[in-house]
Design brief:
By secondary structure, this protein is of the alpha+beta class. The protein has a domain at 95-185. Helices cover 31% and strands 10% of the residues. The strands form 2 sheets. The protein has a 3-stranded antiparallel beta sheet with strand order 3-5-4. Strands 1-2 form a two-stranded antiparallel ribbon. Strand 1 and strand 2 form a beta hairpin. The chain is elongated. It comes from Amphimedon queenslandica (Sponge). Keywords: Aminoacyl-tRNA synthetase, ATP-binding, Ligase, Nucleotide-binding, Protein biosynthesis. Residues 60-179 form the Phenylalanyl-tRNA synthetase domain.
Length: 190
């Protein structure tokens, strides 16, 4: 039954019901025969309805509905890595701050490289505030003045830009966040 709602008023557009009784319909349950002999087949051919259910006579059901071969290989490789002690990173958080998505990966703020990622900024929640302070300062220093043989980008790095929430553009942002979290907690294995 299709129904269209307009405010509180319901109007029926179409009503259609179709019930067909299948040819094998019966109110009584009969156990199907599994040992079939020639006389059963000849009797079945003569009668309108056969009591022989050949689909139940198979000992094994046919295997249907397989996984894609690449998915099987992926699952096997994933299991191997997990057994070796590797951890899976949480990739179910699709909202990320610009800090983890760009700044921690040393992409400069307001650089055209951000446009190549199709960045979508969020209105609500617009900003993130939970960053490891020491790591934030190290990233800021690397952007502004450099270090470890680098001169940095030589620009005024802004915390407001790093706090903007976006839909993450790549999973590498998850990698930087997870690695920093594991280092901070002193986690060496899962």
């Amino acid at each position: 039954m299709a129904v269209w709602l307009t405010g509180w008023k319901q109007t029926a557009l179409a009503v259609s019901e179709s019930l067909l009784k299948p040819f094998f319909f019966d109110l009584c349950f009969r156990k199907p025969k599994t040992n079939i002999v020639c006389s059963d087949i000849s009797d079945a051919c003569r009668s309108k309805r056969s009591q022989i259910d050949s689909s139940n006579s198979f000992e094994e059901l046919l295997a249907t509905g397989h996984l894609h071969p690449l998915l099987k290989v992926r699952t096997e490789i994933r299991q191997i890595f997990l057994e070796m002690g590797f951890c899976e990173m949480p990739t179910n958080n699709f909202i990320e701050s610009s800090f983890w998505n760009f700044d921690a990966l040393f992409q400069p703020q307001q650089h055209p490289v951000g446009d190549a990622h199709n960045t979508f900024f969020l209105k609500d929640p617009q900003f993130s505030y939970d960053f490891p302070t020491e790591y934030l300062e190290r990233v800021k220093t690397m952007h502004q003045t450099g270090g470890h043989g680098s001169i940095g980008y030589q620009y005024d790095w802004k915390l407001e830009e790093a706090q903007k929430n976006i839909l993450w553009t790549h999973t590498t942002a998850v990698s930087t966040n997870a690695l920093q979290t594991w280092i901070t907690k002193g986690v060496h294995s899962c």
